[in-house]
Design goal:
Length: about 290
């Protein structure tokens, strides 16, 4: 992207993080989808740090009463996970597996991806709301807040990604994500606004005249993929049972499954042969591998 470096070196109190916290960014979220919310509301996390991270015990919350604990998943360095909302049980909500399947059908052509995680109960408000990501120790890793300034069904992208310097985007009292204006009240700063590099059809184009004047970019007609787009998000759908990553489920995958047979062990332990997510590599995983054979 072409945003000038000086926009990324703005320092304002409470908004610049310089410590050694886990380096995970909320790179995109869709809070007001077209059609039913279940399986269509989601947020994307990107690990821009140098090490893989276990998300066991991490939480996503707002500034009210909503609090959701993330499953025992690993987000590899340079990798993404997408947390998909299943809605509220008893109020039209769906279970986690169904939410995951809806997202994969609509964004990944029906192919499964371990980077897509369904979460029953997770809800993002269409109007004002917040997303606060905390690690297992309770430290705030990334947070943002928005007001009712979006038209369905556009996703909102993080675009100031060169340094990931700003990790706090307002609060419920003063939302920092202003999708039709400057973020965090800083003139010319478009952290979640300058979607001039969005690859997917739900991309929101920037309407900030200042950015157009500075860089002469046509924000409504762009082709370069964003790092935050689900269609170009750094993860690829793979066949179920493809344990060796060669896009074909075959004898080598079968041998890897046999080698991993039994209990997976500690939370977030590498256990790719656990295809059904029950922390045990067993007969159900063997059947799942056979279903994807070829």
């Amino acid at each position: 992207m072409k945003t000038q470096q000086w926009l990324l070196t703005i320092v304002f109190a409470g908004m610049l993080v310089t410590d050694a916290r886990a380096q995970v960014a909320i790179t995109e979220f869709l809070n007001n989808p077209d059609g039913a919310d279940q399986g269509r509301e989601w947020l994307e996390l990107y690990n821009f740090g140098p090490v893989d991270l276990c998300l066991a015990g991490w939480t996503v919350a707002d500034e009210g009463i909503d609090l959701f604990t993330l499953p025992e998943a690993t987000i590899v360095t340079g990798g993404y996970v997408v947390l998909v909302s299943g809605g509220v049980p008893g109020f039209g909500g769906v279970d986690a597996a169904t939410a995951k399947a809806i997202f994969e059908t609509e964004w990944l052509g029906g192919r499964e991806s371990p980077a897509v995680i369904g979460m029953q109960g997770l809800v993002l408000a269409n109007a004002a709301d917040e997303i606060v990501l905390r690690d297992s120790g309770g430290a705030v890793i990334w947070s943002l807040a928005w007001s009712d300034d979006e038209t369905s069904p556009f996703a909102t992208f993080l675009t100031e990604t060169t340094l990931y310097a700003v990790r706090v985007f307002g609060s419920s009292e003063e939302p920092g994500v202003v999708r039709n204006g400057d973020d965090n009240g800083v003139p010319g700063f478009a952290g979640y606004e300058q979607n001039d590099v969005a690859a997917d059809s739900f991309a929101r184009a920037s309407t900030i005249e200042l950015l157009v004047a500075l860089f002469g970019e046509d924000f409504a007609n762009v082709l370069v993929p964003s790092v935050a787009s689900p269609l170009a998000g750094g993860y690829q759908p793979v066949p179920v049972g493809d344990l060796d990553g060669d896009t074909v489920v075959g004898i080598q995958d079968f041998l890897l499954l046999l080698a991993a047979w039994g209990t997976c062990g500690t939370p977030c332990a590498a256990c790719p042969a656990d295809l059904d997510g029950d922390d045990i590599v067993g007969s159900n995983d063997f059947l799942a591998l056979l279903a994807g054979w070829g």
